[in-house]
Amino acid sequence: MAPRLPHVAGLIGLGALLAGGVACAPRNDADGADPVTAAASAEARYWNSATIYFLLTDRFDNGNPANDGALGRRKDGALLRNFEGGDFAGILRRIEAGYFDSLGVNAIWLTPFLEQIHGSVDEGTGKTYGYHGYWTRDWTAVDPALGTREELHALVDAAHRRGIRVLMDAVINHPGPVTPQDPAWPSSWVRTSPTCSYKDYSTTVDCTLVPTLPDIRTDSDDRVELPLPLIAKWRGEGRLDAEVASLDAFFTRTRYPRAPRYYIIKWLTDWVREFGFDGYRLDTAKHFGENVSAELVQEAALAFEDWKRAHPRKAVDSLPFYTMGEVYGYAPNQGRAYDFGDRKVDFFSHGYDGLINFAFKAEAAGPLDSLYTRYAATLDTGALRGVSIVNYISSHDDGGPYDRERKDPFGAGTRLLLAPGAAQVYYGDELARLLVVPGAEGDANLRSTMNWADLEAGGATAAVLAHWRKLGQFRRAHPAVGAGEHHTLQAAPYVFGRTLKADGITDRVVVALDQPAGAKTIPVAGIFRDGAVLVDAYTGTEGTVTGGGVSLTTPAGLVLLSERR
Question: Is residue 266 part of a domain?
């Protein structure tokens, strides 16, 4: 079992200050914008220094083969379009073995675990089941192919014991497709046309993503009744009275109209109140009105506080509920506002603490200094001060990932994990898991089963993982890496420093890339004083700063420096 990574003094300080709600005094922007609150600044620093591990539960690890084939689903789908067996038990096994600790992971993002449609659809790329989690049939139930509620509780509790947060992938925009096994939702609940054309706000929001996905009428305040198939399902499971009573209590407390979105808000926040999920990744965020996210997050924050009061010893700390949005196409150079063509929307003002950065995977192929300088500046003093961005190199539905052929998994890890902002590691990035699978079509290529066998065989895969682990541990130990001020120290070979001084935290690092193997001298002036003893986290080598530089002899071309503690 891998040991739990120690928290260095700087990170302990950050967590303690966040827990106490302490932060540096807010600053006024030169352009007259509203100051960022102290709490928002501290929360953003935490999440911008975080490493978020995103895994597709069905593809990660099969810990309990007994739940394979649940709900009578057959293995007759196209390649990588069936349920493959990954489950909560497999994730729990890896948590308890220290796998996520060894990567420096701060949070695990689970694909949706709600009960999916029972049947399959032919998408044109082959017969497909809802293994991915985005085709909900029942927002109140766990899909039995992934495990049980008890196993999900065990997973979340185990992560929390290790200081790892768990993010729930929340889907409010659509249910799953209609199949012979899955009845249609009433027209009062969903629209089935038109299909989105993305010409403006309305043709992005008031429409269906694809013809097979009914769109929840999140814009409606009209009263709707529970769908008859859902009533029949709950009655058959012996929980109809309890579910109806819980809904009655929710609507009495909130005084919301019994409109479709409020039912789903109730169901999604129930998971937070029961399990203590630390945040949401909100799916398809630009395809429903921004008022919906604000309402959902308000209820989720209340649910999270209720859970923490009921389970004070299980909470990681007092950091507030976090919401990360999937605003497809968003990039940091857009600032706070996403442009629909006829309307701009500031999602950060509607419940979102962070947005996924869809630009990073392309920008990472260019010069790093200009990229890192720009990201650090916009997060520290620019338009995105007080919020977070989440960078990634591959994901479950991005057909153009960075290094699709996995030709340079070492460089990919370096570029992602040293970038300002949060880092999203997609399962298998750290093992160079295949993103191109012979015979697979479309996004199934991105969703191959985790290549644990390659790791067990050792060799190149083990070496890639060792590289990602060193970077991840360095990132977790030093919040300056993701949330600090950026300083270019040398253009070639590239050397930069990051410094963070806030809330009583002082953290500084120097990173040198593309260094020669063997003896090297690295400039550190302005970051570390002469006489300071520095440690290279990549090799464990130590050196003393003399004349503004540190001389080391290491076999690696990457050097990760911090002061010896």
Answer: yes
Q: Among the options 138, 283, 363, 403, which is catalytic? A: 283
Tell me which residue range forms the domain holding 540: 484-565
One domain, residues 152 and 201? yes
pLDDT digits (tens, 9 = 90+) for 37-52: 777 788 999 999 999 9
Q: 433 and 530 share a domain? A: no
Final residue belonging to a domain, choices 434, 465, 483: 483
Contact in structure between 290 and 297 (CB atoms under 8 Å):
no
Pairing status of strand 107-110 against strand 51-55: parallel
- Considering only CA atoms, give the Rg of the chain: 24
Dist. CA 441–CA 73, nearest whole Å: 21
Catalytic choice (115, 151, 299, 326): 326
Name the pairing type of β-strands 388-392 and 422-426: parallel
Contact assessment for residue 517 and residue 82, using Cβ atoms and an 8 Å cutoff: no
- Cα–Cα distances (Å) from 72 to 122, 181, 234, in that order, read 18, 11, 19
- Average pLDDT along the chain: 93
Looking at residue 22, what is its pLDDT? 28
- 215 included as an active-site residue: no
Which residues lie across from 51 on neighbouring strands? 423
558 Cβ contact list (under 8 Å, min separation 6): 414, 511, 512, 513, 515, 538
Residue of 5, 3, 23, 4 lying closest to 13 (CA atoms): 23
Cα separation, 445 vs 437, whole angstroms: 5
Which of 31-45, 99-113, 524-538 is predicted with the least confidence, judged by mean pLDDT?
A: 31-45
Q: Where is the domain boundary, 429, 458, 483? A: 483
Can 283 be counted among the known catalytic residues?
Answer: yes
pTM summary value: 0.94
